[in-house]
Amino acid sequence: MARPTRWQTETKPGHSEWYVDRFRRMAAEGADLGGEARLLDAMLAPGSRVLDAGCGTGRVGAVLHERGHTVVGVDADPVLIEAAEKDHPGPRWLVADLTELDLPAVGEPDLFDGAVLAGNVMVFLSPGTESEALRRVAAHVRDDGPIVVGFHVNRELALADFDDAAAAAGLSIEHRFATWDLRRWHVDADFAVTVLRKA
């Protein structure tokens, strides 16, 4: 059984509902919620199969779906998955913990062309499970497919620890940027977007 995530143990009651409402408001106000998806779309062939790992309310996977990709989104929070199903029909949304991810067992046997972990997914994992989560995601991606991860580096997970977890999962760093729109990486950046591939 999966260990409780930081999302479950370090957020207040009602946080998931607040999060859903927040992104619905942002969408209604016309906020740009597709930056992560645009990066993946540029990296992948048209009509690719994409794993949105830690998909939350489905905003990234929804844009990828609109751009013609086949998307499966997974998140451990059933409230967020329910919102994704309601707000973004088209992709397949599943409740699943990344550290126990086994999509063939739920009818998704085909490998993915790429995966994305956006929205601070790594920060909200249970401490010490980062490598296993990356390993399980990578097991669902074809050998040359990108795994793109973005998170704030000034929170619970240090960038050096993330790099160690990626290496332990058999992944190598191909690129690193300071933002999803590919601004150059620098040591004072508070956010990191890392492109990983199987070593």
The H/E string reads HHHEHEHEEHHEHEE
Q: Spans with pLDDT under 50 lasting ≥5 residues?
A: none
Distance between the termini: 29 Å
CATH-derived topology: Rossmann fold
Give me the secondary-structure category: alpha/beta
Task: Tell me the strand percentage band.
Answer: 15-25%
CATH architecture: 3-Layer(aba) Sandwich
Briefly, what CATH class? Alpha Beta
* Large-scale geometry: globular
Q: Please give the largest β-sheet.
A: 7 strands, mixed
Structural domain count: 1
User: Could you give the count of β-strands?
Assistant: 7
Q: Please, what is the CATH homologous superfamily? A: Vaccinia Virus protein VP39
**Sheet with the most strands: spatial strand order:** 3-2-1-4-5-7-6
**Radius of gyration, in angstroms, nearest whole number:** 15 Å
Q: On the 0-100 scale, what is the average pLDDT?
A: 92
| Helical residue percent band | 25-40%
The DSSP helix count reads 8
Detailed description of the structure:
The chain is an alpha/beta fold and 199 residues long. The chain has a single domain, classed as Vaccinia Virus protein VP39 (Rossmann fold, 3-Layer(aba) Sandwich). The chain is 35% helix and 20% strand. The protein is built from eight helices and seven strands, in the order αααβαβαββααβαββ. A seven-stranded mixed beta sheet has the order 3-2-1-4-5-7-6, with helices on both faces. Strand 2, helix 5 (78-87) and strand 3 form a beta-alpha-beta unit. The two termini are 29 Å apart. The mean pLDDT is 92.
